[in-house]
Amino acid sequence: MIEQPTVLAAEFPPGVDAFDFRSLIPGLDGTAWAAAFTKITLLLWIAAALVMIFFLVTYRSPKLVPTKGQWLAESVYGMVRDNIARDVIGKDGVRFAPYLTVLFCFILLNNLWGIVPFAQISPMSHIAFPMVLALVSWLLYIGHGIAKWGFLGYIKHVCWVSGAPLWVQPILVPIEFVSNLILRPVTLSVRLFANMFAGHMILLVFILGGVALFQADSMFIKPIAVLSWGMAIVMTFFEFGIMVLQAYVFTLLSATYLQHSLAESH
Prior knowledge:
This protein is mostly helical and 266 residues long. The protein is built from 8 helices and no strands.
C-alpha cells in the first residue's frame, strides 16, 4: 500500500510538506536516496507505461475499419497533428506530431493523477518534472534551429528583430536573447507546475478543512463540513478542466517555439 504523508491526517491548513512522500524502498528513509523511488516516481512510471502500452496495443494490428482503441489513438494523434503541429508549425509540423502527441498524453495522464482516488497528486506539482519536459522541448527547438540556420545564424535569427531601426537593435537583441533562449523553458515549466501545485493545495484545503470542521467541538460548526466537502467535489471538476488545458497549452507552446525556430523571418 502506498503510504500517504502524515501531514494529510494531522495538520490544517496544509503546507508544502503535503507534497513530500517517503521512499517506497524499505530502509531508505532519512538517506540521500530516499527520494529515488517515492509515490511521485511510481505515478510517473505508471503514466509512461500507460502511454507506451496504449499506442503499442492499439496500433499492433491496425485495421481499415478501426477498433474503439485504434479510433481513440487515431483521434488523439489526429487532434495534435492537425490542430497543433500543422496549424502552428506549418507543412513541416507533421514530423513533430509524434513527439507532440506523446508529450500531450504524458502530461495529461500525470496531471490527472491529481483527481484519481488513492493517487490524488500530480507529479507535475513538483517543479523538477515540468522543468525536465521543458528542457526536452527547449533542446528540440534549439537543435532544429541550429540545424537549419547554423549556430551563429540561429542566434541572429532569434535575436535580431527584422524591420526595427538599427539604433534600437542594441536594446532589442539582449531582450530577445534572454526571452527566446533562456526564459522560455522557465516560463513553460513554471506555468504547468504552478497550476498543478495550486490545484492540489486547493483540494487539500477543502478536504482537510471539512475534516477540521467536522471534528470541531461546536455542533453548529460540524454541518459546515458538508459544504467544504461539496466544494471539494466542485473544484475537482474544475481541476479536471485545468489539467486538460495545461497539457494542451504546454504542447501548443512547444509547437510555437519550434515554429519560431524554423520560420523564415522573425
